């Protein structure tokens, strides 16, 4: 789901190619599609406005080079950073170290990370139409470009043969890259499934995926190429993050509803659980070895847990408060790890279910909205993407 500020900057950057007063560009281009107060209510640091502009250029905005600096400067001076919640740092028994890499293409907006079996860290460069691969030992980064322009690579997952699968969020297909041959294959979705989001393999090698704004979920059989897509029962629900339990049942969270749902892997019939607070908006989910589902409540600033066996729900306020916007989430050795995406700087949060205590760290480069994270293949460490900062990271955990 695109950040509001990115939409705003996209509109700001449309111009005719002639030098203009930046204020005029904002007032005319912005109000063509949105009320002006959407710009005036946005606020960023100068560095963040620069990154926003770069992402829009990478996404294809028609911005003459001689106007980019002026528009960026105008935005930074006119709409400075507002009251962003400050990170709450809680000490604890676990130690972590961060290693961060800036990806080579400016404005890529790395969305999802992927830790592959061979030790590489992959990422989707959503706005630059690239898949990137980081050698975490040498720091070397290689980029692969899908043949369809503007595909909007989003979610990432690896199959048993080492192929990299991704959702083409902007072009309505599921893509596969063979890293050995660098060959791409596309699996086109039905016309009413326009924006595939999160992909995930089950234990039988079937690829499941959410289709966010189309209000659907689907599956793809890689052996045959067969695709089946079904409607999410609640409208709107915006199916978002996804996990698979120990029995092969896919679960997804509904970002515009207070619900988590399961898909019968045979019939594709969907069962929903309604969370206890009607304002809950789970954006990403993680699952433990005993099939308990933890969710990041983006709207309310909570960490929550659903037991699908009983329907019981329990919640804990996130350390940095109501506006902290918990987002990317994963499980490492039974502990829940997630990021608070709206604090300055973003935090990495650890929650111990046994003690129900939190520990937090400031992400060194700032985070820039950690939209997703996952464990490394040995289950010991974490990879994550720092979208707005054009950075991907490896977090090494020790006690």
Structure in words:
The structure is a single chain. By secondary structure, this protein is mainly beta. The model is unreliable at 1-18 (pLDDT under 50). It has helices at residues 4-12, 22-31, 37-40, 46-58, 65-78, and strands at residues 95-102, 110-115, 121-125, 130-134, 141-144, 153-158, 164-168, 173-178, 183-188, 196-201, 207-211, 216-221, 226-231, 239-244, 250-254, 259-263, 270-274, 282-287, 293-297, 302-306, 313-317, 326-332, 335-340, 347-352, 357-362, 370-375, 382-386, 391-398. A 4-stranded antiparallel beta sheet has the order 1-28-27-26, with no helix packed on it. A 4-stranded antiparallel beta sheet has the order 2-3-4-5, with no helix packed on it. It has 5 helices and 28 strands. Helix 1 (4-12) crosses helix 4 and helix 2 packs across helix 5.
Helical run tally: 5
What's the β-strand tally?
28
The shape, in one word, is globular
Tell me the name of the CATH class of the largest domain. Answer: Mainly Beta
Largest sheet, described in full?
4 strands, antiparallel
Q: Which structural class best describes the helix and strand composition?
A: mainly beta
Beta-sheet strand percentage?
A: 35-45%
Q: Calculate the terminal CA-CA distance, rounded to whole Å.
A: 35 Å
| Mean pLDDT value | 89
**CATH fold descriptor of the largest domain:** Methylamine Dehydrogenase, Chain H
**What is the fourth-level CATH superfamily of the largest domain?**
YVTN repeat-like/Quinoprotein amine dehydrogenase
Binned, the helix content reads 10-25%
